[in-house]
Each structure stands twice: as structure tokens, then as C-alpha cells.
Design goal:
heterotrimer; A mainly alpha; B mainly alpha; C mainly alpha; B: mainly alpha; two-stranded antiparallel ribbon; C: mainly alpha; F1FO ATP Synthase; 2 helices
Chain lengths: ~190, ~260, ~70
């Protein structure tokens, strides 16, 4: 320590600018310290911090913007879903209505067809009946004439030509036929 | 004891003293350009260059270098300025605190970075210069906020008995005008100064023992070098801590001047 | 062995802050152990207290050099 003290004394003698105590500032260094801190402060305050703060603000805006965008997209999706559901319900209702209508139409068509068929059947039946009746009448007439002629032929062949007298013949035949009709064997054919 | 042994070994060993820190490079006297002054200027140029380069093109999604600057900036802005000064008016002081923090941190780190190895803040002039700014700023914002009379009145807490008020006022005056700036400057200076002296002592001592000592001393020099390494790591921690503490105390003083109640 | 009495004075002045800093960090560790979520707040308070206690030791070293 003595050496150190000697060295201290010697060096302070050599360079008088250095303060003897380390807790006292060296003037030149103090000035340098102040000047360069001012320079650094100016650069930081004018350039660095505004840049960083601007970027922070941008980042915050970007994050908030993203949140907003996401919310908007969600709302849109929700709306689209609602719309789709509504459309689906509409379509379903429409399909039901169409089906109902088709069923009704089908029923109506079936009923109409049935009616037509019945009418047709009735008409055919009536026609057939009428035709049968007519044919029966015709047959009856023909048969009566035929029977009359056959009977007359038969009778004339039996009794001879005396019986060809018109009036008598008609009366006889008619009378004979009426008898024929009244007999139960003829009526129950 | 080691000094005696070393002295007996033939050459004298000079323990590092305050004189170790006096390294004028150009000129002499009160305005000599000294090594710490050049290191300090270099650090300012370096910090300014790095900050300007890293913030030239800032992206919303940060890259690697932007992330580093942002981490330091976020520590000062959110961890110190906003939490201590309050979110209302902290933005005004962010540039001051940020430049203080980066400047002290880089200058402290110069203490263990090999080609430089000179903690600038171990010269009292530099912490004093920085303290001067903090001193001016916290008095200025206090007076601006409360007016000159209100500022001095706010130093004394309300609700004290009348007879004790002058005493407290005197003590507070001492705190505001002497203790705070002096401790602020001395804390940084003392930590760097003592830490650097310890490192120099261990390294020079180990070197001296290795070169000039006997076999026993040569063996002892090995743990001494190891100790120097351990202390270097410890210094790294102290350097970060002191930069943080200086900035935090500056923010605390500013916040105290701005606060409505004492 | 020669030396300086002022350095002994510094050694004495470092005792108080040493104990104080120990107490501060003990309380900080306790606090974090009880409420880990309060770590951030406690940390800045602990470092503030540490800085204030340390100031006394710094006064010691400064005055040791003044009177050496």
C-alpha cells in the first residue's frame, strides 16, 4: 500500500488533472459524459422511440382489426346459415304442398275415371239390354210369322185346300197361338 | 500476508488502487481525453447505430434483431416506466429511461468484454453526468406539476403534528437534494469501481504468482484464476442489476415528483 | 502487514447493509413461496429495497477512499 501511495503521489504530480479522490469527477470526463448523453437522448427521443411506438400502435391496430374482421366473418356466416335454414324450410313446405296437391289431383282423377267407367259400363249395359230386347221382339215377330206359316202349311197339308180362305185362316191361327201362349208349357220356357 | 510473501519473492506487487483507473490517452490535466471518455463516446455511437439499424424497418411481426431491441425496450417501457410512473404520463419519460438503461448497460458490459475491459461507470464523472439529468428532470416535472410552493409542500406528508413538520421538511429536503442524487451516482460508481478492482486484483495477483512466485504460489495461482472467472460471471450479474436499479430509481424519483400525495 | 484503517471502516460499514440485504431477499423469497403469482410485483420492490440498503455500503466505500 505504501508503494501504491507513492505511485499515487507520483502520478498526481505528473498529471495534475486527475482528482486525488476517486469520488471527485474529472472535468473533461464530466463534459464528455453530458455531451454524449445528450446526443444519445436526442437520437432515442427523435428516432428510436417514435418508430417503436408507431410500430406498437400498428400492431395493436392490426390485432384489433383482426378481431373485428373475425367477428364480422362470424356474423356473416351466421346470417348465411339463417338464410339457408329459412330457404330449406321454404323448400320443404313447398314440397309438401306440391305433394298434397298431387295427391288431391290424383284422387280427383281416379274419381273421375271411376265415374266415367261406371257411366260407360251403364251405357253399355243399357245398350246391350235394349239390343237384346229388340232382338227378342224381332225374333218373336219372326217366330210368330214362321210358326204361323208352318202351322198353316201343316194344317193345309192335313185338311186340304179348303182351308185357304184368308179370313178364316187368320182367325184360326190367332186363336191357336193364343191358346199356345196360355198353356203353361209354352210360357215357362 | 500475500503482499509480504510476494515482496519476499523479489519483485514488488502493486495492488490495484484508484490510480489504476486514471488512463489519459491524449493530453493531460483537467481536460485530458481519457480512455473511459473514448469508451463512453464509442458506446454512444454503438448504441445509436444499433438502435437506428434495428428500427429502420419495423414490422408488425418482428424479426430476430427487432425482437431483441423490442425485448429491451419492452422491459424499460412496460416493466419500469409504465409500472412505476403509471400509464397516464409515462410515455414522456420512456426516451430518457431507455437511453439511460441502454447506455449504462453497454458501458457496464464493457467492463468484462475483452478488448475494452474498462467499466466506464467506475469513473465518477459519468454516473454523475447521468445523475445530473435525472436530478434536473425529477425536480423540473415536480415543480411543473405542482408549482414551486406546492412541490416543496408535497415533500412533507400530510397529517403530521405541527412541531415535527420542520424537522421532516429538513430531512426531506436533504433527501431530495443531496441523498438521492449522491446515492444514485455513488451506487453505480461504487459497484463498478469495486467490482473492477476485485477483478484486477485477482487477475494481476494470479499472474504475478504464476510468473514470479515459487512452486507453491504457482499452484495457488490456479484457483485464483478460477476465482477471477467466477467473479467475472458475478460481475455480469451486477452489471445488469445496476443498470436496472439506476433506471428503476430514476423512474421512482420521477413518479414521486408526479404523485399527488407524498 | 500494513494497510489502511479506512478500509477496516468500510468493512464495518458493510455489515449493516449485508444484514439488511439478506433480510430483504429472505422476505422476498418468503413472499414468492407463499404467493408465486405476486412475483413480478415483489421483485421490483425487493430490488428497490436492495438498492436503498446497498447505498449505505456504497457510502462506506466512497468514504474509505476519501479518508485513505
Amino acid at each position: 500500500m505504501q508503494h501504491a501511495a507513492l505511485a499515487l503521489a507520483a502520478s498526481t504530480a505528473e498529471v495534475p488533472g486527475n482528482p486525488e479522490l476517486p469520488v471527485l469527477p474529472h472535468t473533461g470526463e464530466l463534459i464528455v459524459g453530458i455531451i454524449f448523453f445528450v446526443i444519445l437522448y436526442a437520437i432515442v427521443a427523435k428516432k428510436v422511440v417514435p418508430r417503436l411506438e408507431k410500430m406498437f400502435a400498428e400492431r395493436r391496430a392490426a390485432i384489433e382489426g383482426n378481431v373485428e374482421k373475425a367477428e364480422r366473418a362470424q356474423a356473416e356466416a351466421q346470417a348465411a346459415l339463417e338464410q339457408y335454414r329459412a330457404q330449406l324450410a321454404d323448400a320443404r313446405g313447398e314440397a309438401n304442398a306440391i305433394r298434397e296437391e298431387a295427391r288431391q289431383q290424383g284422387a280427383a282423377i281416379v274419381a273421375e275415371m271411376r265415374q266415367q267407367a261406371q257411366a260407360e259400363a251403364e251405357r253399355i249395359t243399357t245398350n246391350a239390354r235394349a239390343q237384346i230386347e229388340a232382338e227378342r221382339q224381332q225374333t218373336m215377330v219372326q217366330l210368330r210369322q214362321e210358326v204361323g206359316r208352318l202351322a198353316t202349311d201343316l194344317a193345309s197339308r192335313i185338311v186340304g185346300e179348303s182351308l185357304h180362305d184368308e179370313v178364316r185362316r187368320r182367325g184360326t191361327v190367332d186363336r191357336f197361338l193364343a191358346d199356345l201362349e196360355q198353356t203353361p208349357t209354352v210360357t215357362s220356357r | 500476508m500475500s503482499l509480504r510473501v510476494l515482496a519476499a519473492a523479489g519483485e514488488t506487487f502493486e495492488a490495484p488502487s484508484a490510480e489504476t483507473f486514471w488512463q489519459p490517452l491524449i493530453g493531460s490535466g483537467a481536460f485530458a481525453i481519457t480512455r473511459p471518455a473514448i469508451v463512453y463516446a464509442l458506446s454512444v455511437v454503438l448504441i445509436a447505430a444499433v438502435l437506428l439499424w434495428a428500427t429502420k424497418r419495423l414490422a408488425v411481426v418482428p424479426g430476430k434483431r427487432q425482437m431483441t431491441v423490442e425485448a429491451v425496450y419492452g422491459l424499460v417501457r412496460n416493466g419500469l416506466a409504465r409500472d412505476i410512473i403509471g400509464s397516464h404520463d409515462f410515455l414522456k419519460f420512456v426516451p430518457l429511461l431507455f437511453s439511460l438503461f441502454t447506455l449504462i448497460l453497454v458501458n457496464n458490459l464493457f467492463g468484462i468484454i475483452p478488448p475494452i475491459q474498462y467499466p466506464t461507470m467506475s469513473r465518477i464523472a459519468f454516473p454523475l453526468a447521468l445523475t445530473l439529468f435525472v436530478f434536473v428532470v425529477y425536480h423540473f416535472v415536480g415543480i411543473k406539476r405542482k408549482g414551486l410552493g406546492g412541490y416543496f409542500k408535497s415533500m412533507v406528508p400530510a397529517g403530521l403534528p405541527t412541531w415535527i413538520v420542520p424537522l421532516v421538511f429538513l430531512l426531506e429536503l436533504l433527501t431530495f437534494f443531496v441523498t438521492r442524487p449522491v446515492t444514485l451516482a455513488l451506487r453505480l460508481f461504487g459497484n463498478m469501481f469495486a467490482g473492477h478492482i476485485i477483478l484486477v486484483l485477482f487477475i494481476l495477483g494470479a499472474e504475478y504468482m504464476l510468473l514470479h512466485g515459487g512452486i507453491a504460489l504457482k499452484l495457488v495461482s490456479i484457483p485464483t484464476f478460477l476465482m477471477a472467472f467466477v467473479l467475472t460471471v458475478f460481475e455480469l450479474l451486477v452489471e445488469f442489476l445496476q443498470a436496472y436499479v439506476f433506471t428503476m430509481l430514476a423512474a421512482t424519483y420521477i413518479a414521486g415528483s408526479l404523485a399527488d400525495e407524498h | 502487514m500494513d494497510g489502511n484503517l479506512a478500509i477496516v471502516g468500510y468493512g464495518l460499514s458493510a455489515i449493516g447493509p449485508g444484514i439488511g440485504i439478506g433480510l430483504i431477499f429472505a422476505a422476498y423469497i418468503n413472499g414468492v413461496a407463499r404467493q408465486p403469482e405476486a412475483r413480478g410485483m415483489l421483485q421490483s420492490i425487493a430490488i428497490l429495497g436492495f438498492a436503498l440498503a446497498e447505498a449505505l455500503a456504497i457510502f462506506g466505500i466512497a468514504l474509505a477512499f476519501v479518508f485513505s
